[in-house]
Amino acid sequence: MLSFKVIFAGGKTGGHVFPAVAMAKEFKKRFPESQVIFVGTKDGLESMIVPKFGFKLIFICARGLKRKASPKNILLPYYILRSLYQSLRILNEEKPDLVVGTGGYVSFPVVFSARLKNIPTLIQEQNSYPGISTRLLAFLVDRVCLSYSSSSDYFLTQGKLKMIGNPIRADMVSADRYEGLIKFNLDPGKKTIFIFGGSQGSHAINQAVLESMDFLLENWQLLWQTGEGDFVSVSEKVKEKKIKCVVLPFIEDMRSAYAASDLVISRAGALTLAEICACGKPSLLIPYPFATADHQRYNAETLQREGAAEIILQKDLTGGILAKKLFSLLSDDEKLKRMGERSKKIGKPEATSLLVDEMEKLLKKGSRRLQPAHPEGCGYQITR
Could you tell me the pTM of the whole model? Predict the structure, then answer.
C-alpha cells in the first residue's frame, strides 16, 4: 500500500482551515498508511480545530501585512525571515512528499520553502478574489486549484490553474427536508428562512432581522443562528412577534439546517457559499464589509451574476429593505426554484475528492515514496 507524507499549511480563519481538514480526511481515507501534518500559528483557529481531528500540528511564528498603516508592519520583515527559517527546518526534519497551501499568511513561508527544496506544491484558493499569498505563490507552485472560474482573471500562470471548487463535508448534501424540519421543530407547511452570520453570528444581520419581523408573513418561519453574543436578547425580543422562530446560539448540524431551508440569509464566506451551492439553496447574501480585500463581496457577486443569489450590502441594510427583499423572493416560487437550480449548478460536492486526485497526481509525478509511517514519528516537538 502506498504511503506518503503531506504537509498542509493554512490558517487563521475557518475559511482556510476547514478546507484543509476536509482534504486531509479524504487523503487519509484514500491512503490510510500516510502521514498528514498541519503547519499553523498559535493564535489562529487551527490551534483549536486541527487537534480535534487527530492531526499533528506544528506552529510557526508568521504574521501578515496590516492593510492599514500600522507600526506592526515595521516588524514584518523579521517575521517573514523567521517563518521561512522555521518552515525550512520543518521540511528538513519531516521530509514531506507534498506541501499543500490553503491560504492565509501562514501558507506563504511553508509553500515558498517547499519550492526552494523542490518539493511538489499545490494551492487551494477558496475565494473568487484570490488572496495575495496565492497570487504570489502561483508563479512557483505546481498547481493552483480554484473555486470560481472568475478567479482565473487574476493569474498570469494560466497553465497551472484548475477549476475544482471548495471542499466540503461529504455528508452535507444528503439530508432530507422533512427530517430537517422535524429536527428543529419547524412546521412543514411553512416556508423556512435560515439566518446565520457565521459561527459567531452577526450583530448587524440580527438587528436587521429583528427590525423586519413586524412586516413578515405568518406563513413563514425563521431558523436563526444568532451567535452567543446576541442569543439572549434576540430570544427575548422574538417572544413578542407573531412569526414562528427557532432561535439558537449555534447550530452544529448545518446539514439539517440547510435541508430545512427555503431561503438562506448569510454572510458570503467561501466555505459557506460552497455549502449553500452544494445543497442547491437560493440565498440572500450580506457580505462582511471588513473581510480582507473585500473578498466576501467578490464571492457574493459571483453567485449573483449566475442568478443563484441576491445581495444587500451592509451599508444599505435596514429592516425595511430586508423585509422588501424577502417579500420579493419568497412570494415568487418560480424565482426561488430557478435560484436553487443555478446554485446547485455552481455547487461542487465532489470538490474534495477531485482535490485529492490532484494531490495524488503530483505525488505520483514526484515518484518519491515513503516506507509505511511509524507511530514513533508522532512524537515531533511543536515549534515555538
Answer: 0.84
